[in-house]
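Re: the pair you flagged

First of the two:
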Amino acid sequence: MKYENILFDLDGTLTDPYTGITNSFTYALGKFGITETDREKLSLVIGPPLENSFRKCTEWMKTQQKRQ
């Protein structure tokens, strides 16, 4: 059987998306004036839908900034 297309779901099964996703998320947050250098804190954005991740992450960061 000849295949015309092969699709890969790169959700972490075949690759480790941690660095790419957290770098992209850090960049996007920077565009909104939010600075986060601790990549471990951003690990919560890996997996859920992007919109949910932005909402959750920005709410958490605003809470942290108020505490400082």
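Second of the two:
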Amino acid sequence: MSYRYIFHPDAQQDYEEALIWYAEKSLLAAENFVTSVDQTLVLISNTRDAGEMNIRGSGN
């Protein structure tokens, strides 16, 4: 299952500012930044219930 994610407005602004900063340094750095964020969001989306399952299983 895939999930859709939406950045909080402050996080969106931070992301855009960071992307501009990286792009000013190096286009490769900017591409790597975007790839890293995308991969992290996919990982979070694919494991988003892991923490909830872990809490339920802990006896709390």
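Residues 27-46 form the longest helix (20 residues).

-B.
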